[in-house]
Design brief:
The complex is a heterodimer.
Chain A lengths: L7 H12 L8 H12 L4 H11 L3 H10 L11 E6 L2 H5 L2 H12 L12 E6 L11 E3 L2 E3 L4 H16 L1
Parallel strand pairs in A: 1-2
Antiparallel strand pairs in A: 1-3, 3-4
Helix pairs in contact in A: 1-3, 6-7
Chain B lengths: L3 E6 L2 E6 L4 H7 L23 E4 L5 E3 L9 E4 L3 H16 L15 H8 L26 E3 L9 H9 L6 E3 L6 E3 L15 H5 L5 E3 L12 E6 L8 E7 L2 E7 L11 H5 L14 E4 L2 E4 L2 H19 L4 E4 L6 H15 L4 E2 L7 H10 L17 E5 L3 H4 L1 H12 L3 E5 L12 E3 L6 H14 L5 H7 E2 L1 H9 L3 H8 L3 H13 L3 E5 L1 H4 L4 H14 L10 E3 L6 H6 L6 E2 L3 E2 L3 H11 L11 H9 L5 E5 L3 H4 L3 H10 L2 E6 L11 E4 L8 E4 L5 E4 L12 H11 L9 H11 L41 E2 L18 E6 L15 H6 L4 E4 L1 H7 L6 E6 L2 E9 L7 E5 L12 E4 L6 E2 L3 E7 L1
Parallel strand pairs in B: 1-5, 15-16, 15-25, 17-18, 17-21, 18-19, 20-30, 21-22, 25-26, 26-27, 31-35, 32-34
Antiparallel strand pairs in B: 1-2, 3-4, 3-5, 6-9, 7-8, 10-11, 11-12, 13-14, 13-27, 23-24, 28-29, 31-38, 32-35, 33-34, 33-38, 36-37
Helix pairs in contact in B: 7-24, 8-24, 8-25, 9-18, 12-14, 12-15, 12-16, 12-18, 21-23
The chains are: A alpha+beta, B alpha/beta.
């Protein structure tokens, strides 16, 4: 028996995603993407439910999840901060931007702030080198940053949330 | 037949098998092609790239493990540049492998180590420096295995062995590139569904997966090894047991026809009981209620005198003996000879009575031969497998892998079991019948086959008798009626009946769920009817296949450790047979059928049976209604027990004789598929113990009957001479593992019985069978249906398996499986203690809430004496086979 930690509502939500794929094969990756879209990560309960419903071995699913960088196994914040460390950003002081974010949020790379608002990530290149150094927060791009500028951006996000 | 074609390898012509795997063929032809990821038994991976070759004229290197042998192949295999390429690859593999060979368990048997030596690798290479991720931690959470990711070369052999051979798929690869590791998912290995079969361990080419139980006990080159037959279940797996001095270090599966190298957790890790300090090594005599040690002379003289006194005073039939499905063919043969010649009675039986007596009787009536018709590995080629009353994954783990392999290849699996057993998940349809409604179910399937005109008219006409009367009975079992009787939907019945009848080759597998009923013989005959109506018998991958439980239960039956037959099922009531044995054994035989196990217990209870000789059985745990068994055994004037441990039964004995264990002796076992296999001495016997057959022969001598055998092979020769089905199983031929019948020294053995519908008895007989309810049904006072059985990691009465730490780490004590709804109704939490009571007794046991049982039913494994399921079971018997109804008893459950 599954030791269920997820709220019943979430189990229901997972099942309704699974139901859309009922009877189909070769669905694992799109199915995992849908689940991540809904939850921001892949809850373990979802892996168990997929395994049971689609007769896919449990470890085959975890193998796929850990193979692709796109899948997350831990919950992430509401805002994902992608700090660019590509060549252009790096030579334009990307490291200082990263340090400033760390300081402002008191969070390490890959981790999420205690209030569940921000997850800090380091990425290789965001593809807008002319704006270096660059940070993306969810879908929004912030370029030509300085440590002070990024701190202000983060403060603005925090203010927006506290309203 | 496979065609061999010409291939040019490095300019030399060789003949290889067309379409076969090129690497495998090259190796067979004597080319020592290196390769780490290729594992003959699973699909190829092609990742290590050491087995590369180049086609003449091409610049490209290809992996020979992913290519089939084809026409016009002219290849380069061992040129200097390819060898240099391999050396570089090996340096790379070595760079990602922690080479702590000096302390590694695998050293001496490691394939990477061997290649590193062969190619003269530079261990301190600065061109290929170590890239081992030192942060990766060992996973030691499994009770039997240790995984070291720093040594893993990500070859996939373990993952594929777990998936493709054992069909469990517990492990897979996590991560990517240098961080690829074998993983059991989010959980550690120990928290997964891994059952410890160790197929991954056997597949691992390096020291990444190692045995915890062998750790630190010896380097590979210090170990001796012996090939023998597993002493646990009836599959008859061949083991290669590695020893050092007087200790068993590790076990590998041998690529033999019965098991193809596969093992289960018991076969691989379950042998430590053999050096348990609880082994008995001195004969014991009970005086004033306590045992004292005695010499062999004193103990045997006393036994001889007392047995003779009873015989003189009360007659031969006041004596009896229980032989053992755990002992060898030779020992069982000697034992029944002793009971018949020295005691002068046919009161000899053994625990086959409690498992497959109904099979022996039921199949003898219908087919003429009461044994598994086909082979273990034959299931792999079946198109449809109907499993009824067999929890194969737990009771015959290795056979279940062949079933699962068939399902992977597309076979339709039909599982009929009141519990949602593991195989039910793999089944196209799970028929969850009400306990004890099997005859109705099978009649219902045959009704559909008959009504839909799917019956095999040609087969029925040519090879069977009694179809007309039989058809009249099945006419009555309409799907509607059967659905009501069994609780299975009509739709499922139709699906199963059609799938079975239409399959090209369909097999039936059954076990205790069919036999251990008061209608056991009826159940078995119903399955025989089913095979005949569809003509699914007499060919490879078909038949009616009772899976025999114990290592040598088939052999003990074959050897005549039964009250009605001599060895080879020659009837004691047949005058010419009796004469033959009287002449051969130089003694007078009784011409009346003797008492069965449960009848002997009853006779002892009534004071009619006064002396009982038990060789290696433990009825104080295995028999039904234990309270009654205990009372009966206590009434005996003389109980002599020989065993490796002071079992619950031995504790009640007047004289206890210490014997050698299976792994300490030579002889033969006959596995479930009628294959006679050799057992060989792995360890020297403990000082003070003697072989069962030597004790019996010595006792016979002291009772005035000479048994002059020099060794077990002398006994086998006598068996050959007196037992037609074993006629050709000579000491010289038994190592080749032949199936009986094998009447003479030229006969190749008989893998499947009743070839082309030619039944052992001539024509197969249809028996019309009406459904009858079990002896005891749930009622107001005892509202639950209790069923009993075995689990994977323990065996029979637990005498051996419960003395093995590795097995106890999986399951240590008994439990009762109960459905969530019943538990809620009774206010029982998972893991709480409950009282289970029947009309015969009660036990306190831990509750395990599960969806394996349906509401209203409970299940208790019978291995555990403290929570002995058999205190509750019903000793009501099948009228023909005298098998008790272990599978249905009414019980009540209370919170305590």
């Amino acid at each position: 028996m599954t030791d269920v930690k997820t709220p019943a509502a979430d189990i229901k939500a997972i099942n309704s995603i699974l139901d859309a794929y009922s009877g189909k094969t070769g669905i694992l990756i799109p199915l995992l993407q849908d689940i991540q879209e809904k939850f921001n990560y892949i809850p373990r309960e979802a892996v168990e439910l997929i395994s049971e419903k689609f007769h896919i071995p449990y470890t085959k699913i975890t193998g796929v999840i850990t193979f692709y960088a796109q899948f997350r196994t831990e919950p992430v914040g509401k805002y994902i901060i992608r700090t660019c460390m590509g060549t252009a950003c790096f030579v334009n002081g990307g490291e200082n931007i990263l340090d400033a974010i760390r300081e402002a949020l008191n969070v390490e790379i890959g981790a999420t702030t205690g209030d569940g608002l921000f997850t800090l990530e380091k990425v290789a290149c965001l593809g807008c080198c002319s704006l270096a150094p660059v940070v993306m927060i969810n879908d929004e791009v912030f370029g030509n940053l300085t440590p002070q500028k990024i701190k202000t951006v983060i403060e603005n996000f925090k203010k927006r949330e506290s309203k | 037949m496979s065609e061999r074609i010409k291939v040019i390898v490095d300019g030399k012509e060789v003949m290889l098998e067309k379409d076969a795997n090129l690497l495998s063929e090259l190796r067979k032809a004597g080319y020592d092609v290196p390769g780490l990821c290729y594992y003959e038994k699973v699909s190829h991976t092609g990742s290590c790239r050491l087995c590369v070759f180049r086609r003449k004229g091409s610049a490209k290197l290809e992996t020979s493990c992913t290519v089939a042998v084809c026409e016009n192949m002219d290849i380069e295999l061992f040129t200097a540049d390819i060898e240099e390429h391999r050396k570089n690859l090996l340096q790379l593999i070595l760079a990602s492998h922690k080479h702590d060979c000096m302390t590694c368990e695998k050293s001496g048997a490691c394939e990477l180590e061997a290649l590193a030596y062969r190619y003269g690798l530079d261990l301190d290479s600065e061109i290929f420096p170590s890239i081992v991720d030192k942060t990766l931690k060992k996973d030691k959470s499994s009770p039997v295995l240790c995984y070291d990711p720093q040594k893993c070369i990500a070859c996939y052999r373990c993952v594929k062995a777990c998936d493709e051979i054992q069909e469990k798929h517990i492990i897979d690869m996590d991560g990517r590139s240098f961080h690829t590791v074998v993983s059991a998912g989010y959980n550690e290995w120990g928290g997964s569904d891994c059952d410890g079969c160790g197929e991954c361990l056997q597949a691992c080419p390096v020291g990444a997966i190692t045995s915890k139980t062998a750790a630190g006990k010896g380097r590979h080159w210090e170990l001796g090894s012996v090939i023998t037959t597993c002493e646990y279940c009836g599959v008859g797996c061949q083991l290669k047991i590695y020893t050092k001095g007087d200790e068993i270090i590790k076990v590998e599966g041998v690529d033999a026809p019965a098991n193809r190298g596969r093992l289960c957790v018991k076969g691989r890790f379950g042998h430590d009981y053999i050096r348990s300090p609880e082994r008995i090594t001195k004969p014991l005599i009970k005086e004033n209620g306590a045992f004292r040690e005695a010499s062999w002379d004193e103990a045997l003289d006393l036994a001889a005198k007392k047995f003779m006194d009873i015989k003189e005073k009360n007659g031969a039939n006041a004596l009896g003996g229980l032989a053992s499905a755990r002992c060898t063919n030779e020992e069982n043969y000697i034992f029944q000879k002793f009971i018949r010649s020295v005691f002068g009675t046919n009161n000899v039986d053994h625990c086959a009575r409690l498992c497959h007596a109904s099979t022996v009787a039921g199949l003898a009536i219908t087919f003429g031969s009461g044994a598994m018709t086909n082979t273990n590995t034959g299931f792999e080629d079946s198109d449809c497998i109907f499993i009824i009353g067999s929890n194969t994954t737990e009771t015959h783990p290795v056979i279940s892998t062949f079933v699962k392999n068939a399902v992977r290849k597309g076979a339709v699996l039909i599982v009929a079991d009141p519990r949602r057993i593991d195989l039910a998940r793999r089944a196209k349809v799970h028929l969850q019948q009400r306990n004890g409604s099997d005859v109705a179910l099978v009649n219902g399937l045959m009704h559909i086959i008959y009504k839909e005109n799917l019956h095999n008219k040609e087969f029925i006409e040519a090879h069977t008798e009694g179809f007309k009367e039989f058809a009249e009975v099945i006419e009555k079992y309409t799907p509607e009626k059967v659905s009501k009787l069994t609780g299975i939907s009509e739709e499922k019945l139709y699906f199963a009946a059609r799938a079975y009848a239409k399959a090209k080759n369909a097999s039936i597998i059954f076990s205790m769920g069919i036999t251990q009923h008061t209608t056991g013989v009826d159940n078995v005959m119903s399955l025989a009817n089913l095979a005949m109506i569809a003509g699914q018998i007499g060919r490879h991958a078909t038949g009616v296949n009772p899976l025999r439980g114990q290592n040598n239960v088939q052999g003990a039956c074959d050897m005549g450790a039964l009250p009605n037959v001599y060895s080879g099922y020659q009837k004691v009531v047949d005058a010419p047979v009796k004469e033959k044995f009287e002449k051969a054994w130089n003694a007078k035989m009784d011409d009346k059928v003797g008492l069965t196990v449960v009848e002997m217990m009853n006779a002892a209870g009534e004071g009619k049976l006064k002396g009982l000789y038990i060789m290696g059985e433990n009825p104080m745990v295995s028999d039904p209604n234990l309270h009654h068994v205990e009372e009966s055994l206590k009434k005996l004037e003389l109980l002599v027990v020989q065993d490796i441990f002071l079992t619950e039964t031995a504790k009640l004995a007047h004289i206890v004789l210490p014997v050698t264990a299976t792994l300490e002796k030579d002889g033969t076992f006959t596995n479930t598929e009628r294959r006679v296999q050799v057992i060989r001495k792995v360890l020297e016997p403990l000082d003070g113990t003697r072989n069962d057959w030597e004790i019996v022969a010595d006792l016979a001598g002291r009772m005035g009957y000479k048994m002059g055998y020099g060794n077990v092979w002398d006994i086998l020769k006598e068996i050959n001479a007196l037992t037609p089905i074993y006629g050709g199983m000579t000491p010289e031929r038994v190592p080749s593992g032949l199936h009986w019948p094998c009447p003479n020294a030229e006969h190749p053995g008989t893998p499947f019985l009743h070839k082309d519908g030619n039944f052992s008895k001539g024509k197969g007989t249809f028996k019309p069978i009406e459904f009858k309810e079990p002896a005891e049904l749930p009622d107001g006072k005892y509202p639950y249906t209790l069923s009993t059985g075995r689990i994977l990691c323990h065996y029979h009465t637990g005498t051996m398996s419960r003395k093995v730490d590795a097995l106890n780490a999986y399951v240590k004590e008994g439990y009762v499986e109960i459905s969530a709804s019943d538990a809620a109704k009774l206010g029982i939490q998972n893991g709480a203690k409950v009282k289970v009571a029947s009309r015969r007794g009660e036990i306190i046991i831990t509750a395990k809430i599960t969806d394996r049982v349906v509401p209203g039913s409970v299940f208790i494994p019978f291995h555990f004496v403290e929570t002995a399921a058999n205190r509750l079971t019903n000793d009501a018997l099948d009228p023909i086979a005298k098998i008790p109804e272990f599978k249905v008893a009414a019980c009540n459950i209370e919170k305590v």
